[in-house]
Amino acid sequence: MNEALAGRRELASLAWLVLVASLFAGCLAIVPVPPDSADVRKGRKIEHSDVGFIVPGVTTRREVEHHLGPSTRHCDHPPASAYLWETPPWTMYWWVAVPDAAFSDNFLAGGGRYVFFIAFDDRGIVRKCEFRSLSQRGSLDDKLELWAKRDRHRKFP
Prior knowledge:
This protein is an alpha+beta fold. The protein contains 3 helices and 8 strands; from the N terminus they run H-E-E-H-E-E-E-E-E-E-H. It has one domain (3-149). It has helices at 3-25, 61-68, 140-149, and strands spanning 28-33, 42-43, 73-76, 79-87, 90-98, 101-109, 112-120, 126-134. A hairpin with a 2-residue loop joins strand 5 (90-98) and strand 6. The relative contact order is 0.18. The mean pLDDT is 80.
């Protein structure tokens, strides 16, 4: 049995235990159930282990694209790329229990947008890179350009 399935079963057992306890005690319970950590709703998740080959001042854009594939977005001025992925939200189960009645439902919460930004110099050499969590506001193109312009003239060893 894989670890994700075992974790979900353990969490489901805990949820039932909370439900039963709330029925006897008369209380409110909220149990978050995370999505499978491997679930990606959109894009390709980039892990830290995927980018270990990148060395600012040494690695080329061609090498990055060879290892990570085509980027989600790129801009030319300044030269930069973004790899975006989205994760599904958590399921939140809630119960309200009083001595004569019980109510329950669920709702979705969270989820996220994540990006790996890479800025290049004019020769196509990696200048900087960074993992970021993105808000839902604003376009990825604008965020990429603003991020790439920061510290534009900083020298890397």
